[in-house]
């Protein structure tokens, strides 16, 4: 009789490897199953490699625009091949690191596609493996868009778009004004392409706070990216001079043609809940492929947990990681629940980040909403960074002064948002934030100033 | 926006219910009025009908949880809303293109679910009543600090406190916070846990406490230790549902009454004959006539004459409550355990009516279909030991009643009659168990004698009949 594992984790993306390691730390015998690459989408073709490209693009942009403070560089040139190598090196280092971490925690690893045979058995590569509990962490994959079939050459998804060392386009269209579309738009723009972003909804980042999303759109437009909202791609024709894309204004129905050399399809991601045999063992998989769970990350079948992208939006690595820990702790007999604030970041420059509620959500929830803002144009630190485009915005409750949310556009927004997330978790009031001393000069001072502004006591801006 | 469903008031004076069984899984569709969860209150089980049409989004309580009335038990998504799990933002999902890159913020997603709707099973479609946890909070003084609900429907508590509370099996929402605005801190959780621990050595029945009985000192709950060597020869069954309710009710009775026994016997010969004569007539009307309706009637008449036996003690107010109505509880051994349905207003009902109700209630008890009203409001109880056949029993009082009458099997026995001759008579023992705080021994004996007088010469019941 072969081994019966205590916990079998299916998928080794950020959620999966967190789950596997935590379960092993809690003394469980753990097997991790990976169908493709250890580290999942995030490490291999997601969060990490895109950030490498964004950084290179930003450095390049910085050099080009340093003349304001006297930095003169004759001809800054980016070697795409070398950049690709650097990018791959980082990925290799990190995925290797994850493999080491798994090994170091005595998590066994099996490669192959897992399929459930029954509630305690999966089949991997023709072999049956038994487990007491399972954590499904199969993640998500890019949505397809009819009429824009991805060939990873002319029409690419986020994975294909990473390969900047392949034929670099002169003209680029990004379909989808979400994080992926915007981040790649900026990478390609800064590396020399003419870039258009189309978004079906009325604003980029449709679910975001409209003011900060609108500001980001304005800044990106100023950087030379064409953004068209309320617009959809109808079809594409391949002609000699390029890809002729028919675009349609969803409001007026008016169509026009845009000629580009490359199209990025970034219309969201879909969960990978189907095809695992989950339905056959009684686990509910909804029609879109999500596997619903409760806050303990339990599916409807005892002993089967699900975490990360496959469970529900938002599809974010850090959400998956936390859920992975929670599922592992519960699988080991604990009693953990997912009741945390989930920050959200777009890594363009300037960055956009948010956590907690928007004004609209807060007032819908019955709060008496009060808003405090601090534009980075009033920040000394932002001026010395030559990056005054941005805004820090806090949402509070007028009656109790409870902090409800924060929205930031600006450099390092991704790091600054952590302060607001902590404040929300701690149940801080806006006064708590205002009274916390922030070093000067920093960008994070702006959070303190926004809190003061919410009480109409800001020092550096008019308190209107 | 998902709607919150709260535990409704299932009957007057019912303050909590135990979640017995979920009939619908999370993610499953619900019709309006479709039973979706089984709840037990005061020993009866009811299936709650869904107040809305939609999808059961989330169960907020587990099977076995005891939930106060008006506490949220489930989230139901409206039809058309995504059959989504917890925390998902209901979305319009236009075209694929519109399905924006998911890694972007969905700041709404957690918040949307918080539209905690306090409607008590009354769907209020016109205006969603949105709970504002702070409107109340604003008027609270800092000292009064109660844990406040936070965005996303949780209490304002630091993460470490939330985690600790979970590990200790405490409901963070119940823990008073000492921080500004009622924030729950780790120290608050520890203090609450200690308080709970000291509370646990007090009597098990909160209900009894509510009746104002003095707390017992130094009574620790009994802990069971498996004898060495028998570790694998025992089964542990959680104390749940009816068994838990029975245990609590019995303990309350044991601890909060001064139970005293008075035993007597009754010559049922004439009643046996009378009942045999009436039986076919009752049957013609579709009613099975047993001895119980006669006993009910005799007891009702006797209670009118001895009101102390039809009273309750309100200790909190130091008052004896004398009831001018007779509601008789009858102990029924249902499959899952003892249950006591109540025949109301016995003094105003005919024998046939009582017989019919006794039959209906016994049947419902066996099927587990009693409503909360049908098991509450007794003023006196009768337990029929006869059917199974112990010689004597010492019944336990169905608190807050003052007494319970045990009736036994009717058996032919040799009896010395008034002419000093030994004759064969149909005899039955009566055991009256009464709370000596409310009823004196002589009074109890006289009450028994009155019941006996009526049963031995059942025509006397006509004199008392309304």
Model description:
The complex is a heterodimer of chains A (464) and B (466). Chain A is 31% helix and 25% strand. Chain A folds into 3 domains: 4-142 and 270-331, FAD/NAD(P)-binding domain (3-Layer(bba) Sandwich), CATH 3.50.50.60; 155-266, 3-Layer(bba) Sandwich (FAD/NAD(P)-binding domain), CATH 3.50.50.60; 350-454, Enolase-like, domain 1, CATH 3.30.390.30. Chain A is built from 13 helices and 22 strands. Chain A is α/β, with parallel strands linked by helices. In chain A, the strands form 5 sheets. In chain A, strands 1, 2, 3, 4, 5, 6 and 17 form a 7-stranded mixed β-sheet that branches. In chain A, strands 8-15-9-10-11 form a 5-stranded parallel β-sheet. Chain B is an alpha+beta fold and 466 residues long. Among the domains of chain B are: 3-91 and 109-131, OB fold (Dihydrolipoamide Acetyltransferase, E2P); 257-464, Chloramphenicol Acetyltransferase (2-Layer Sandwich), CATH 3.30.559. In chain B, 26% of the residues lie in helices and 22% in strands. Chain B has 11 helices and 20 strands. Chain B has helices at 108-112, 133-137, 159-167, 186-200, 206-210, 241-256, 269-284, 292-305, 351-367, 441-456, 460-464, and strands at 3-6, 16-22, 29-30, 35-41, 44-49, 54-59, 66-68, 72-77, 149-150, 154-155, 259-267, 311-314, 319-322, 328-334, 337-339, 342-343, 380-384, 403-407, 411-416, 422-435. In chain B, strands 11, 14, 15, 16, 17, 18, 19 and 20 form an 8-stranded mixed β-sheet that branches. In chain B, strands 1-8-6-3 form a 4-stranded antiparallel β-sheet, with no helix packed on it. In chain B, helix 8 packs across helix 10. Chain B starts with a strand and ends with a helix. Residues 82-152 and 201-218 of chain B have low confidence and may be disordered. The chains are: A alpha/beta (464), B alpha+beta (466). Chains A and B meet through helix 6, strand 19 and helix 9 of A and helix 1, helix 2 and helix 3 of B.
């Amino acid at each position: 009789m072969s081994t019966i594992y205590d916990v079998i984790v299916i998928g080794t993306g950020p959620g999966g490897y967190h789950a596997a390691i935590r379960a092993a730390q809690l003394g469980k015998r753990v097997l991790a199953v990976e169908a493709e690459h250890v580290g999942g989408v995030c490490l291999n073709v997601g969060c990490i490699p895109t950030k490498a490209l964004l950084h290179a693009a930003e450095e390049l942009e910085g050099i080009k625009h340093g003349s304001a403070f006297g930095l003169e560089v004759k001809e800054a040139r980016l070697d795409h091949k070398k950049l690709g190598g650097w990018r791959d090196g980082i990925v290799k280092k990190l995925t290797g690191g994850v493999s080491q971490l798994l090994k170091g925690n005595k998590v066994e690893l099996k490669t192959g596609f897992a399929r459930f045979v029954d509630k305690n058995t999966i089949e991997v590569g023709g072999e049956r493996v038994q487990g007491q509990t399972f954590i499904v962490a199969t993640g998500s994959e890019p949505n397809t868009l009819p009429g824009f079939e991805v060939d990873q050459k002319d029409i690419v998804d986020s994975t294909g778009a990473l390969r900047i060392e392949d034929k670099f386009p002169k003209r680029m269209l990004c379909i989808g004004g979400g994080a992926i579309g915007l981040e790649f738009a900026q990478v390609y723009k800064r590396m020399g392409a003419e870039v258009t972003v189309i978004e079906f909804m009325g604003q980029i980042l449709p679910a975001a706070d409209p003011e900060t999303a609108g500001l980001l759109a304005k800044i990106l437009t100023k950087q030379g990216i064409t953004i068209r909202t309320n617009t959809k791609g109808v079809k594409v024709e391949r002609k000699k001079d390029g890809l002729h894309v028919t675009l349609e204004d969803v409001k007026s129905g008016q169509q026009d043609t845009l000629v580009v050399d490359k199209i990025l399809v970034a219309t969201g991601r879909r969960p990978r809940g189907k095809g695992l045999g989950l339905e056959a063992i009684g686990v509910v998989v909804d029609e879109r492929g999500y596997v619903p769970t409760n806050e303990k990350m339990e599916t409807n079948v005892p002993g089967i947990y699900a975490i990360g992208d496959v469970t529900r939006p938002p599809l974010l690595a850090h959400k998956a990681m936390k859920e992975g820990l929670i599922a592992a702790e519960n699988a080991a007999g604990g009693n953990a629940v997912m009741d945390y604030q989930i920050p959200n970041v777009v890594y363009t420059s300037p960055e956009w980040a948010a956590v907690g509620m928007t004004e609209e959500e807060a007032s819908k929830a019955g709060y008496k909403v009060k808003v405090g803002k601090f534009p980075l144009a009033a920040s000394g630190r932002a001026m010395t960074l030559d990056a005054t485009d941005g805004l820090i915005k806090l949402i509070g409750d007028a009656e109790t002064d409870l902090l409800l949310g924060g929205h930031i556009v600006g450099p390092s927004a991704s790091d600054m948002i952590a302060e607001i997330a902590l404040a929300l978790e701690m149940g801080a009031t806006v006064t708590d934030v205002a009274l916390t001393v922030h070093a000067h000069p920093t960008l994070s001072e702006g959070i303190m100033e926004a809190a003061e502004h919410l009480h109409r006591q800001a020092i550096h801006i008019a308190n209107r | 926006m998902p709607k919150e469903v709260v535990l409704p008031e299932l009957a007057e004076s019912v303050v909590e219910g135990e979640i017995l069984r979920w009939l619908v899984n999370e993610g499953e569709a619900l019709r309006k009025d479709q039973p979706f969860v089984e709840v037990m209150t005061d020993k009866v089980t009811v299936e709650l009908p869904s107040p809305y049409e939609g999808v059961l989004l989330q169960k907020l309580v587990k099977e076995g949880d005891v939930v106060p009335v008006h506490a949220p038990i489930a989230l139901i998504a409206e039809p058309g809303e995504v059959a989504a799990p917890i925390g998902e933002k209901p979305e319009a999902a236009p075209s694929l293109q519109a399905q924006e890159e998911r890694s972007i913020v969905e700041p709404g997603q957690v918040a949307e679910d918080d539209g905690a709707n306090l409607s008590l099973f009354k769907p209020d479609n016109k205006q969603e009543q949105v709970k504002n946890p702070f409107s109340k909070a604003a008027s609270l003084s800092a000292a009064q600090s109660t844990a406040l609900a936070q965005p996303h429907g949780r209490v304002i508590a630091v993460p470490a406190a939330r985690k600790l509370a979970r590990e200790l099996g405490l409901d963070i929402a119940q823990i008073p916070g000492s921080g500004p605005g009622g924030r729950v801190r780790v120290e608050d959780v520890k203090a609450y846990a200690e308080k709970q621990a000291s509370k646990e050595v007090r009597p098990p029945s909160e209900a009894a406490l509510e009746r104002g009985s003095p707390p017992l000192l130094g009574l620790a709950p009994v802990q069971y230790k498996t004898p060495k060597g028998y570790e694998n020869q025992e089964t542990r069954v959680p104390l749940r549902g009816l068994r838990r309710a029975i245990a609590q009710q019995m303990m309350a009775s044991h601890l909060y009454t001064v139970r005293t026994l008075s035993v007597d016997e009754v010559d049922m010969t004439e009643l046996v004959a009378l009942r045999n004569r009436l039986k076919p007539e009752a049957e013609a009307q579709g009613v099975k006539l047993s001895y119980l309706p006669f006993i009910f009637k005799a007891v009702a008449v006797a209670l009118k004459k001895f009101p102390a036996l039809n009273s309750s003690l309100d200790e909190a107010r130091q008052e004896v409550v004398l009831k001018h109505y007779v509601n008789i509880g009858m102990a029924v051994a249902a499959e899952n355990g003892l249950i006591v349905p109540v025949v109301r207003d016995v003094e105003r009902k005919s024998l046939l009516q009582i017989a019919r109700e006794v039959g209906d209630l016994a049947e419902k008890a066996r099927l587990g279909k009693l409503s909360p009203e049908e098991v509450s409001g007794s003023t006196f109880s009768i337990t029929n030991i006869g059917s199974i056949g112990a010689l004597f029993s010492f019944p336990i009082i169905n608190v807050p009643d003052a007494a319970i009458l045990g009736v036994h099997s009717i058996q032919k026995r040799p009896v010395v009659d008034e002419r000093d001759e030994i004759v064969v008579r149909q005899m039955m023992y009566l055991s009256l168990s009464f709370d000596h705080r409310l009823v004196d021994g002589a009074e109890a004996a006289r009450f028994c004698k009155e019941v006996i007088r009526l049963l031995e010469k059942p025509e006397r019941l006509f004199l008392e009949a309304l």
